[in-house]
Prior knowledge:
- By secondary structure, the protein is an all-alpha fold.
- It has one domain (3-39).
- The chain has helices spanning 5-35, 43-51.
- Keywords: Membrane, Transmembrane, Transmembrane helix.
- The chain crosses the membrane at residues 6-27.
Amino acid sequence: MIKTGFGVSITVLAFSLAVIAFMNVALSQYRAAAIADITLPDYSTITSSIHR
Length: 52
């Protein structure tokens, strides 16, 4: 890894941008599915299948 403060700030900035982009894609897919009235597999269905 780059030891300089500039390199660290660039790395943190790139990482935060990647996280924001990932969240943006996930939220847009969830919103599109909600508009189309499609039920996405969520944690409640996964846990309910485990409890059975």
